[in-house]
Amino acid sequence: MSDGGILSAGPGPIDASLLFGYYRFEDGADHPLLTSLPAAMIVRDGAAGTDPWTTAALRLIALEADRMGDGAGAILTRAVEIVFVQAIRAAIADLRDMSNVSSFLAALADRHLTRALTAIHATPAAPWTLTQLAREAGLSRTAFAERFAKTVGQPPMAYLAGWRVTLAGHLLRDGNLSTDEIAERVGYASPAAFARRFKAATGIGPGAYRRAN
After folding, report:
1. Side-chain-facing half-sphere of 67: CA atoms under 13 Å
2. Could you tell me the pTM of the whole model?
């Protein structure tokens, strides 16, 4: 690697230009979508015919990174977001025929499970029951429970409880709401019940968690 950032490897006159970027999550990195992403997602040139947005975004990123004119930072941020979303779309499409894969990402490839997950994430504090979630998914109670557990890797109600704890953790770190208000916001009628569930999931109570974060 030279001081100019040029890496030389192997013989021959062929050149390759690499453009690097990254995401930094100060909060929300424990979202099930992010934790279920594969180690690498590859967006291939062959997809250009059916996915012109990705090709256009990549070209825009390269041009703006080279020029770095006024507002380039804002443009680069939005363009990278487009590529990231398109990569997730491609990953979901790859999972549609992989019934043996268990993850949140795989569930997004299932239109029935997506309906139930959307309902959970839209209104996590609702008094959801297995029957109600099955109705949202458009499946029988038994079929939904089996399909959800097989695809996501845990039962529907366990996923709901875990998501509520995740949301509570975000709210506790934010520090603007009391513990009682957070308990109500994530679906617990009793602050004591919320505290027990939170401690069982994280190992510490809500108050200690807030002080530590």
Report:
1. 13
2. 0.70
